[in-house]
Amino acid sequence: MRYLLFATLSLAAVGCATLTEDAMTPIAMSFGDGSPGKCQLTNKRGAWSTDIPSTVSIRKSDDALKYDCETTDGREAVGSIESEMGAKIVASAVFLDFGITDAITDKHRKYTPSFVIPVAGKPENVGNSVGRNVYSELETLNDLHNRGIISDVEFESEKKQILETN
Length: 166
Hints:
By secondary structure, the chain is of the alpha+beta class. The chain is built from six helices and nine strands.
């Protein structure tokens, strides 16, 4: 009887997700337009470098997985993939550890299994003979607007001027 009690308490101490979940999770990643490239991925549990498109094995964590990517033609994409709570943490309470072990290991967390990295379309050099990049100018203007450096009126005026001179 003692051995049965000891085995039951031991199982309860390690929790549900700790027994059934791997600490690593695969994420299939690609750029929205199908371009090849490279990405740097980070969360508090580690850092990874990968070619895109590919499937990369990431350590589960309770923080967002940040990505900093670049296509082979130089377009950049920066953002994050949120970590979500897995359903197995609830079952952990049944094993009497109340999720403590899983909270420490983050094995109950998950990232989406497939992620398409949004990337701007390939810029076309249209316009004047020096190859002015209208897309880049609009992107810079939008950044200034989003940061509050220029007002809505200034943004619309400058945007109109860029588009008309093209």
